[in-house]
Protein: ERCC4 domain protein
Amino acid sequence: MRKDPPVTVKTEPPDEVQDGSYDAKTIGEHEKVPLVIMPYGERYSILRQLEQMKPTVIILYNTDIATLRHIEIYKACHSELFLQIFSLMYRESTEESRYLTALKNETDAFESLFKEKATLLIPRRYETDREEVPRLELSTRDGGGQQADLDERPKVIVDMREFNSELPTVLYTKGYDVVAVTLEVGDYVLSPGIAVERKALDDLTQSLQSGRVFKQSEQGELTRHCREVRALLCALLRATPRLKLIWSLSPANSAEYFAELKLNRPEPDAEQAMSLKGDETTKPIEEDQTGSPDKRRKPNAILLRHMSQHLPGMARGDVQSMMLSQKVRSLRDLFTMPIEQLHTAVGSHADKLHVFANFDFSASD
Structure:
């Protein structure tokens, strides 16, 4: 006849509360206690039943490590309640071996986590060291004795929207003082004569195809047949002789270019950089004699393109402002206007337009 192995009853002594007011009783001392049988492994069901029933005795017939941890969490959240936990298990059985293996795997997992966290720990110290900015040493014979104070760091004026990129941080670590303002013309101002418009490759391609970069450079116009990026870029450089193009591989490379461009140049003025405004694309709303506001007017795109290409000395923005104004209504008014009124209408370009309109083709060289 087969003899079953003995049953081992494991008990955990109850945790004592601070005031020691609970009344510890064994299972046999309880009278008329409801018995609730639940399957193990159902996490949310176990937690819900523990919160509703608030048991004082729990007997684990099939000891499961996950269920035991849920009970421990419940006991930690309700330390004022008295709770006894019993575990029924055959000695040297597969249930005991499975339970001990789960405990060992849990311990190994925590040890592995602690080791991995120690090796992957990122220091919380921030690198705030700044490099010395490059300076151009001049001989005293060439006026080097009148250099600015070397203790004052050179500064770069940066548009507020550019702080989403890495370049302002790289400039700061390179030793430059970064002045954050809101710019309408350019993204970085290195000196009174140098402003940089930073564009990624995708942004540059879209700007060339839409013609927005031509407006930003104040000259040039998108032609009908220029669809390739290289052709558009060449058209932009040809239409804007003063525009220089620099290809940068990384923010660190851009910071090195900025350092070379700033050598032996005066510091930029933030107030002057903020005062530069872009050209208006539409005419402001004006009220007529009846008191009703007019609709916003836009210049004819074809006429704007041709006139900006052929009128001497006038850029796209100048032609656009002239077409939106009420002072010049046609080319006839423009070419027959006296020089005084022409100065009022187009400003500094009046002399070139006056010579162009009154040029005598029959005159010899």
Remarks:
- Residues 94-119 form the longest helix (26 residues).
- The two ends are 135 Å apart (CA to CA).
- The chain has three domains: 7-119, 152-275, 301-357.
